[in-house]
Amino acid sequence: MAEQAIEEILKREYAAGFVTDIEADRLPPGLDENVIREISARKQEPGFMLERRLESYRYWTTLQPPQWAHFPHPEVDFQAITYYSAPRRKQGPQSLEDVDPRLLETYEKLGIPLHERAALAGVAVDAVFDSVSVATTFKERLAAAGVIFCPMSEAIRQHGELVQRYLGSVVPHTDNFYAALNSAVFSDGSFVYIPKGVKCPMELSTYFRINEAKTGQFERTLIIADEGASVSYLEGCTAPMRDENQLHAAVVELVALQDASIRYATVQNWYPGDEQGRGGIYNFVTKRGECRGRNSHISWTQVETGSAITWKYPSCVLLGDDSVGEFYSIATTRHHQRADTGTKMIHLGRNTRSTIVSKGISADTSSQVYRGLVRMAPGATGAKNHTQCDSLLIGPVAASHTFPTIQVGEVTAQVEHEATTSRIAEDQLFYLRQRGLSAEQAVQMIVAGFCRQVVQKLPLEFAVEANRLLAVTLEGAVG
Amino acid sequence: MDALLSIKDLKVANGGRQVLDGFSLTVGAGQIHVLMGPNGSGKTTLASVLAGREGYEVNGGSVTFNGADLLVLLPEERARKGLFLGFQHPVEIPGLANATFLREAYNTLHEGEDELDAADFLAMARRLLQEVELSDAFLSRGLNQGFSGGEKKRNEMLQLLLFKPRLAILDEIDSGLDVDGLRLIAKLIVRRRNEGASFLIISHNPQLLRYVAPDAIHVLYGGRLVVSGGADIAETIAERGYEWLGNAHDQERQGAVALAGSVGNG
Ligand SMILES: Nc1ncnc2c1ncn2[C@@H]1O[C@H](COP(=O)(O)OP(=O)(O)O)[C@@H](O)[C@H]1O
Ligand SMILES: [Mg+2]
Asked: Considering the domain boundaries, does residue B204 fall inside one?
């Protein structure tokens, strides 16, 4: 009986799976130097950017796709992908009033109203649709505080100096296969600069939407918190339901200078594919933050419910003495989803501290990997890490694996690692149902309890949404 | 007397074994009944079947609750009709804040009434925590997570006071409690009874039975009730154990002996 009720909720459709009918300005599929010149030209980029792109592309052509993954997947045909697709629009600078109503409607349907009147109070949004940013809200209010929050393509044109100094300084194009590809073809994303001593007056948020078929999304985000600055940022993502796999290969770089703090949260709900494992997004992402200054702080929080395959390891390089890195993660997988996620904490500075809390929930025939690296470099005296990895399995065939790597080159450093694997027990369900809760509510409460430590780290506005998302991601027998 | 709970000739098998084999019992509104019986005699099985737990084979008999067939209902439906089970071993649900759980359950069980806002609910929960002598910290902790045996039982009692069920089945509510805890729980049971609630208390503890002054005490043996009567039964069992019932049971089966001191149940 309980199993049936659980099946019911879990059969709910992927709510963000619709397509927006809008004419696109699109490059033909395939990748060569001309395509890169086209992308750069369409974005009216300064010369330095084109040079960097070409250098990255040439480097990428020397690389092979990564083979280390725990789960095999069909090879990606990089010549079949469209690298640039943008909703057609009038030339010139855009105000919210100029944005195509079909786009506004799309975001409205996704629960992200872009009209400032209707918007979530206290949250500024940058809306990225396929390859371009279509709207950014509250720009003036943020500008008054000295905060720059704009599409990456605009930053490249208007804040070239900051971009040249910081872009690629945390994740160079030589970092890995997909970082090289992204550095060559990235089309948009968000740019954030918080000046010295400024506490960003609003939550910042970017909402990524893939709409076009056969199109890859290669977003690039760069957040810089100058000395003593602080910011909280959230990204969300969805895509239509399609039978084909689509590639999303983002690069996110965070830079925290002395006494600065960056809190970066992700609610990732890319289309996960259907029950048979057809379609869904390949989410191959490089995210890294550098605590460059003394006493700086970077915190990653992620709720990963979507994508057919996810590879993602938001990491912290703790360079400044006394700096702090945190990684709080919930990943849920169902059907044939594969999530390979975790983090790297690289301790270089003295008395650096890091915390890793990873909660994995796998249901049905899905599988998950936690893959983590904690490195205590020589000289990172007094550094500390605490890692906790918990897995919750739903159904008899769901699987989870943990691959923690610990490298300690500093005798005064401390590393702690805890791991648990559990299932939703029949007696837990029965207890809650005996108190009048339905089987559906009972499963949701057990899962919410399992995830509480991480959900608490999300900005309040998104904690409710995260719990709701988690509730619809489960499937299979309980036992 | 109107029967709130009426169990007739109930037969339940578990894992191929016939645990209950013709069990009958009637509990009226505002009554306290006590069920005793040796380990493994099927007391928890009975409580679980009444509350609707899956995995038991009910192969005979009937149960009505407030006049309606109980056995066709889902566990949550039984709870919403006012049936509460105080668990022998309350399960831990890590991370699920006790307060969150209590509030969700309260709102479900009291659906249709004015919903309490968060502040009012908290005030009420705090007051009840005091009644069961738990500190406020127990609201933010995970449900039963790391609670001692006695703390778990106090949290079950807290729920009894909060949800106000018409019938509470308390499965060894006294185990893990110290003397003061026992006295406290007895006091709360009596208070709820005086408000009209009914109880089926599973316990071996003569002390608890003395405090709550039950309307009847029953002994489960060999799958059915073999004795029903007053406080003297508990005393006899405290002195002589359950062994002697073996003989009584066999004789009763043969229809030869009516037990001295027992009264018919029904
Ligand atoms: N899951 C199970 N499978 C098979 N037998 C069980 C199971 N649970 C309990 N039993 C058996 O059912 C009988 C009654 O158990 P129980 O109702 O817990 O007794 P009591 O509560 O009176 O001590 C015992 O023999 C016990 O071993
Ligand atoms: Mg028992």
From this structure: yes
Interface confidence: ipTM more than 0.90: yes
User: Residue B16 CA: which ligand 1 atom is closest?
Assistant: 4
pLDDT digits (tens, 9 = 90+) for A116-147: 655 555 677 777 777 667 777 788 888 999 99
| Residue B208 is assigned to a structural domain of this protein | yes
Do B200 and B134 lie in one domain? The reply is no
Name the closest-CA residue to atom 26, ligand 1: B40
pLDDT band at B247 (very low <50, low <70, confident <90, very high): low
Full domain range(s) for residue B71: 3-90+165-253
CATH of the domain at B219: 3.40.50.300
Chain B residues close to A436, C-beta within 8 Å: 76, 79-80, 105, 108-109, 163
* DSSP H helical ranges for A43-159: 47-60, 101-109, 139-144, 152-158
DSSP state at residue A118: T
Q: Are residues B180 and B76 in the same domain?
A: yes
pLDDT digits (tens, 9 = 90+) for A313-340: 999 999 999 999 999 998 888 777 788 8
Say if residue B235 is in the same domain as residue B175.
yes
Please check whether residue B175 lies inside any domain of the structure: yes
Name which residue leads in pLDDT, A432 or A479. A432
Tell me which of A462 and A168 has the higher pLDDT.
A168
Which ligand is located closest to the Cα atom of residue B88?
2
Pocket test for ligand 1, best of B17, B21, B34, B221 (most atoms within 8 A of CB): B17
Assigned token pair, B264: 């018919």
Same domain, B110 and B216: no
B175 and B240 part of one domain: yes
Give the bridge partners for A235, in sequence order: A206, A266
Specify whether B105 is located in the same domain as B228: no
Residue-level length of chain A: 479
Tokens of A422: 């559990």
Task: Tell me the CA–centroid distance for residue A394 and ligand 2, in Å.
Answer: 28
Is there a contact between A61 and A142 (Cβ–Cβ < 8 Å)?
no
Protein residue whose Cα sits closest to atom 25 of ligand 1:
B40
Q: Is the CB of B223 under 6 A from ligand 1?
A: no
Instruction: Determine the distance separating the centroid of ligand 1 and the alpha carbon of B73, expressed in angstroms.
Output: 23
Q: Dump pLDDT digits (tens) for B55-90.
A: 999 999 999 999 999 999 999 999 999 999 999 999
Does any domain span residue B260? no
Structure tokens at A300: 């990653």
pLDDT surpasses 90 at B239: no
Q: How far is the CA of A338 from the centre of ligand 1 (A)?
A: 41
Q: Is the CB of B89 under 6 A from ligand 1?
A: no
Over chain B, what is the mean pLDDT?
A: 89
Cross-chain residue pair B95–A450, CB shorter than 8 Å:
yes
DSSP state of A82: B
What does the pLDDT read at residue A469?
Answer: 64
Q: Which of A13-22, A375-384, B20-29, B103-112 has the lowest mean pLDDT?
A: A13-22
B72 and B183 assigned to the same domain: yes
Ligand 1: which atom is nearest the Cα of residue B15?
4
A453, pLDDT greater than 80 = yes
Number of domains in chain B: 2
B180 and B54 assigned to the same domain:
yes
Sheet holding B68-69, edge to edge: B17-28, B3-14, B57-65, B68-69
Does A436 sit within 8 Å of B109, measured CB to CB?
A: yes
Residue in B20, B34, B41 to alter for ligand 1 test, most ligand atoms within 8 A of Cβ: B41
CB A304, CB A473: distance < 8 Å: no
